């Protein structure tokens, strides 16, 4: 009988096929060369010094828009995309966020709702990481309730003129193109906004204590004039941005488990090496209970992610199921990180170890792409038939 792998006691690796495992290996190798040696310093400094180089590296790896077909995208399965998200977030949620926003929000919006010209203009460059994209939905006064958005687009002759502000926008100040959602006379529409447009600016948001290895910005739209063909022709109403968010949330279901795995492995290693009262702390029952519970929740989370990935590949995944996955996996990943932090004692608060970085990152992941409360209400509505949003 094969010996149990102490890093994968439930044998989860056996649930992936050869191609999925190959994606995991390639992304892990990329991250161990490009991200892991530097990410604690990026986090501490609150910046990624060569984000364009990183984007190009991720493009060459093939993970930008990897689940989209054509236009230079890799055309991989949803499960392969999920596996890549897990490995990226095992390094840092900020790097996974860069990839999610680029692929699942900006590129997906153009791929799903864009014109042929918009696709040809932007998707190949975004897939290669030669251009960076962002997605502007949230506003200073509007988060969970995007139907109340204030950013407006009005017609002026054939042109569109955009006015408003977006807040908490990942990749904003480094983006070449922004997909911006605005209220029009015909309802909410999406616009492809080159960031060198006059009247557009994207100041960085400072003082974050979470996702510090990720660019987060405000978008200021001050009379931004766009040609008639800047609108995404196929998206009308809130279903446009919501479909994009559903894509990104799916990646988070997997990604959160990557952060959890990294924290769990750090705690496991530390517990084996740290001696108190003459024994490794891993020999104490209380530590073992923590590690056992962490492995149980991690295993359940990965099983859930694989299940949802298989459903997405089969074309039967529903938004409510994605909400269940995001709600559960982010919550449990955060709990795993918090428990891991206690196992490391004082070292648990140090950036010398990945645990506190993952823990604080997950506080953002808990909130973005729909807060845990919003996903609870989505699941609540699915199981009771009553909407309790207002
Ligand atoms: C690091 C980071 C990156 C982000 N990147 C992007 C991005 O790229 N693009 C983008 O558009 N947005 C982005 N966001 C914004 C994110 O999606 C929003 O923060 C999120 O949707 C929540 O909105 P809010 O912060 O305005 O909170 P609010 O909506 O004001 O909610 C505050 C609290 O009230 C609760 N609440 C609200 N309504 C209800 C209700 N009906 N019932 C019960 N509880 C309720 C919420 O769950 C939450 O706990 C990012 C956020 C962060 C932190």
Helix-strand layout with pairing:
Elements: H1 18-34, H2 39-45, H3 51-61, H4 78-91, H5 93-113, H6 116-128, E1 133-136, E2 152-156, E3 159-170, E4 177-184, E5 187-194, E6 200-201, E7 216-226, H7 239-273, E8 275-276, E9 279-280, H8 285-313, H9 319-343, H10 355-367, H11 372-384
Parallel strand pairs: 1-4
Antiparallel strand pairs: 2-3, 3-7, 4-5, 6-7, 8-9
Helix pairs in contact: 1-3, 1-4, 4-5, 4-7, 4-8, 5-6, 5-7, 7-8, 7-9, 7-10, 8-9, 9-10, 9-11
Note down, in words, how this protein is organized:
With 390 residues, this protein is an alpha+beta fold. 51% of the residues lie in helices and 14% in strands. The chain has 11 helices and 9 strands. The protein has helices at 18-34, 39-45, 51-61, 78-91, 93-113, 116-128, 239-273, 285-313, 319-343, 355-367, 372-384; strands spanning 133-136, 152-156, 159-170, 177-184, 187-194, 200-201, 216-226, 275-276, 279-280. The protein has a 4-stranded antiparallel beta sheet with strand order 2-3-7-6, with helices on one face. A hairpin with a 2-residue loop joins β2 (152-156) and β3 (159-170). It is globular, with a radius of gyration of 21 Å. The mean pLDDT is 97. Bound molecules: flavin-adenine dinucleotide. Flavin-adenine dinucleotide (FAD) is lined by residues 101, 135-138, 143-144, 168-170, 211, 216, 364, 367-368, 371, 373-374, 389.
